[in-house]
Amino acid sequence: MPFAAITYDIKPGCEKELTEIFGNFRRVRGSSVTDDAGREAGTILATAVFLRDDTLVRVIEYTGDLDAVARHMASQPGVREVERKLKPYLTRPRDTDTPEGFVATFRRSLLTTVAEISIRDRA
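== SchA/CurD ==
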């Protein structure tokens, strides 16, 4: 299962507030991701958020098409709420108010995958 990691440039010293924002996160309605035609395009398996100094990283474990995953996330009320609440803590604004802006920001914030190793890879 692949992973994707996106970064947020944040103001240092806001750990408590950011922990609260993500601690109150409303889970997505479902893990199933569909494409624009409504066909199954993937699954969101898990997410995790990491924070240090002025960098916050959201890691997503998924199956299928990453663009479809990003579009799915853009439509989720909990994701939109988190993005809205993060705005005062960002050092670099993120255009995430529309699905198109969210997907473009997602792509720009995406870290390059260097390696993925899982026990599931063993035959």
